[in-house]
Amino acid sequence: MIQTLLSNLALLTTFLFFSSRLFKLQPTARSSSLSNKVKVGVLHGLFGVVLMYFSVSVSPQTFFDFRNNTIVVSAYFGGLYSSLITTLIISIGRLLLFGGINPSSLMGTFNALVVSFVSVLIFRKVTHYWKAWLGSISLNMLLAISSVTILLPAQSAEILPCYLPMVLASGLLAAYLIRFLEKSDQLLVTVEQNEQRYRSLFTLYDTLLHAAQDVAIIATDTKGIIHLYNTGAQRLFGYQAEELIGKHTPYVLHLPSEIQEYSEQLSRLHKRPIEGFEVLVDFSQHSDSQQKEWTYVRKDGSHLHVNMIVSSIKDQDHQITGYLGIGTDITEKKQAEEKLLEANRILHQLSMIDGLTEIANRRSFEENLEREWKRAERSSEALSLIMFDIDYFKLYNDTYGHLGGDFCLKRVASIAQKSLYRKPDFVARYGGEEFGIILPQTNGQDAFLIAERIREAVEAEAIQHKGSSIKSVVTISVGVATMIPYPQMDKESLISKADKALYQAKQEGRNQVRSFT
User: Fold this and answer.
1) Fewest beta carbons within 10 Å, which of 124, 344, 360, 504?
2) Per-residue pLDDT, 395
3) Third-level CATH fold of 2-188
4) Angle at which helices 2-23 and 156-211 pack, to 10 degrees?
């Protein structure tokens, strides 16, 4: 008996496996289509008939098998429609193929209907999987006890101890197998979904990577070997991906002299040698990313400026596994910046030059005097200042006109410029016909001699001046002042003293040099 029941159980197990593989059904009795429910009901009903051919016969009209388990499974997968179809097929098969109408067949049909309706109710009301299955298995065992007791009261003590454990075992095995196959299906679905998602992500990643036509994306391992090189990088640097994959990035794309220069800077900073690829990723090893402008070398040998952001790639343990560089061409921007700087430099120079005489203007004079004053203060050295103007210049303008006056100013400025032999000496147009000369590291006596030399040079130039009351040529009056700056003083005091000396020279007859005493 046990051997036959085991065969019946093996058939049930085999059927459950193949039916689940055939339909891959989930317990969706409320949402499954009607055609699926019919298929489930028919398949399980036919298998229930097959199980009766391998049943255990205990009398001419009574035999035992696990057909009710197929009804439970049908109720689980397809709900009421499926279980009723399964019950109907099994009941008709029992009546037509196995002895017709008799107490045993009627009892079997009754039990099948009870299992059908109650199992559906249990699976609808009980949400916990194992509790629901244990309820259905318990129902099968109760019906088995009642059937054996009613049909074979004399043999019940002998049959039930063997049959009930097999009913329990067949139910638990069916529940476990279905649960296992469901989880396998769910896992397979999850894997397929993940695979599809990863395919989509890879497609998106590949599309984004190569759609970035104006952005170079380069990935390397920890040693700097290139293993990713996008279309933007190919366009930017002129190398195809197959030419650079597997190559060492610093020695292919970078300007060697720039790498060497930055290497020396980092080595001094870290107080250890920083060389090769480490030069490019030094800061990104200690932070999330670093940004720096580099000069790159294209395949054709031309240079371009690139703003490169280098980020470290880390694994789950936060260990660096490589580096990702994202670069944009800033060559035009750099060129525009250089042109702007040059334009600003020229504008600055122009703003410091007197437009007429082409020597320094008053603004430049004041900045230079401030600078030399602070330097003399630090070194406790003498600083001299010469202030001079053209005698009777208003009369010169009245006589020769403004064009003549402009010519005179230019000639005097040129003479003063040529009379200075040292590089630090500085001459500027202070305003109108007045000029100033700054003489760093010059004592009063030497400053007086320089002033006299300039006065004589202007007079010797013999620029005709009919309006002058002292000479028939252009002359100048000169004031000289010398100081050793100290913190309590300012440069205005030096200008004031030179102006007073100039005023004295004018008061005493012009065309002469006077020093402030």
Assistant:
1) 344
2) 94
3) Arp2/3 complex 21 kDa subunit ARPC3 (1.10.1760)
4) 20
Q: Taking Cα atoms as reference points, which of 409, 428, 419 lies closest to residue 498?
A: 428
Q: Would you state the pLDDT for residue 64? A: 62
CA distance 160 to 143: 12
Residue 383: per-residue pLDDT: 96
Q: Are 8 and 55 in contact (CB under 8 A)?
A: yes
Taking the domains of the chain in order of start, what are their residue ranges? 2-188, 215-331, 352-515
Which pLDDT score is estimated for 277?
A: 81
Pairing of β 426-431 and β 56-57: unpaired
pLDDT on residue 237: 87
Q: How far apart are CA 56 and CA 9, in angstroms?
A: 12
Radius of gyration of the chain, Cα coordinates, nearest whole angstrom: 54
DSSP-derived pairing of the beta strands 434-440 and 383-390: antiparallel
Active site residue 433: yes
State which residues of the chain have pLDDT below 50: 1, 27-30
Q: Which residue among 264, 366, 433, 492 is the active-site one? A: 433
What class, spelled out in words, does domain 352-515 have in CATH? alpha beta
Taken in order 167, 171, 174, 177, the sign of the CA dihedral is negative
Helix crossing, 2-23 with 34-53: angle to 10°?
A: 160
